[in-house]
């Protein structure tokens, strides 16, 4: 009596062995820091609407409010551990509107439209420089010395330009596009603010100032005095502060150059071919 041979072959279900690739985890959007970013975006949009209606004082206030909110969103995200790639992109897009397109349109409506082609070219140069500055900031963020900005940051550039408009509007100047001397002065401020954004001049970033550290009592007193000083005459004081900051980078650059110290804020080597031109 013979028995049938037992087969050693085991059927394998191919579908069971091929594991399905894990689905990418859906990333949520943090509300708190993005609320500040949306507030800054609204400030820029509000400023454009006010400028279109000839209410330049309100437009200037909108830009300064946007600058305050923009300075808070990143700090809030870091303090609450809610940083995200979405928030970074949202912040850049909001900055382009509030500190790039909005100031260019405001200054054009206020003074530059009386200069013809020269006026809109100056406004476009400012807008383009803001876009270039933001793109360079995003791509160089990992290699730049965090203590300094590479070029004038866009909120400060907007504050210099808008601060000048606010001071002149507060002084009673109306229909500025018909005043040649003031239109050309605005032309100069527009080009200065725009081109300074794309230079390699180092501007102190204040990022090494920690809000969690204890400070001497006199620091709190100084902050209180600063707030009181701003309330004395906001247009003049704010314009003066940002104008000093807008010139400080060139002072630092000149001092470093005269002492033979490196003036670049790029913090990596120059060995990589892709880094050519970053250290000049």
SS content category? mainly alpha
**Overall geometric form:** globular
CATH architecture group name: Up-down Bundle
Number of helical runs? 9
> What is the makeup of the main sheet?
2 strands, antiparallel
The first-level CATH class name: Mainly Alpha
Number of domains: 1
Spans where pLDDT lies below 50 across 5 or more residues? 268-280
How big a fraction of the residues is strand? under 5%
Mean pLDDT: 84
**What share of residues is helical?**
55-70%
H-E order? HHHHHEHHEHH
Distance between the termini: 94 Å
Describe this structure in words.
It is a single chain. The chain is mainly α and 280 residues long. It has a single domain (31-207, 229-265), classed as Up-down Bundle (Four Helix Bundle (Hemerythrin (Met), subunit A)). Helices cover 63% and strands 2% of the residues. It contains 9 helices and 2 strands. The chain has helices spanning 14-17, 31-52, 56-79, 85-110, 117-140, 154-170, 180-197, 217-232, 234-258, and strands spanning 148-150, 202-204. Strands 1-2 form a two-stranded antiparallel ribbon. Helix 4 runs parallel beside helix 6 and helix 6 packs antiparallel against helix 7 (180-197). The protein is globular and about 60 Å long. It starts with 13 loop residues before the first helix and ends in a 22-residue tail after the last helix. Mean pLDDT is 84; it is low at 268-280.
């Amino acid at each position: 009596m013979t028995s049938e041979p037992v087969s050693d072959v085991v059927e394998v279900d191919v579908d069971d062995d091929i594991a399905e690739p894990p689905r990418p985890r859906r990333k949520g959007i943090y509300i708190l820091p993005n609320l500040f970013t949306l507030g800054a975006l609204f400030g820029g949009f509000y400023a454009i609407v006010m400028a279109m209606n000839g209410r330049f004082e309100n437009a200037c206030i909108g830009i300064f409010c946007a600058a305050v909110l923009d300075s808070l969103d990143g700090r809030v995200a870091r303090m609450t551990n809610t940083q995200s790639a979405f928030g970074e992109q949202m912040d850049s897009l909001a900055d382009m509107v509030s500190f790039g397109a909005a100031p260019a349109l405001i200054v054009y409506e206020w003074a530059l439209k009386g200069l013809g082609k020269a006026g809109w070219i100056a406004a476009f140069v400012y807008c383009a420089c803001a876009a270039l500055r933001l793109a360079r900031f995003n791509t160089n963020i990992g290699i730049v010395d965090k203590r300094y900005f590479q070029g004038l940051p866009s909120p400060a550039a907007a504050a210099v330009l808008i601060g000048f408009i606010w001071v002149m509007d507060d002084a009673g100047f109306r229909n500025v596009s018909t005043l040649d001397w003031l239109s050309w002065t605005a032309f100069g401020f527009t080009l200065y603010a725009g081109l300074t954004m794309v230079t390699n001049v180092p501007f102190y970033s204040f990022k090494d100032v920690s809000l969690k550290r204890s400070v001497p009592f006199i620091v709190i007193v100084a902050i209180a005095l600063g707030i009181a000083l701003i309330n004395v005459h906001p247009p003049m004081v704010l314009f003066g502060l940002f104008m000093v900051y807008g010139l400080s980078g060139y002072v630092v650059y000149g001092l470093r150059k005269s002492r033979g110290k490196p003036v670049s804020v790029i913090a990596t080597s120059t060995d990589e071919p892709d880094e050519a031109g970053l250290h000049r």
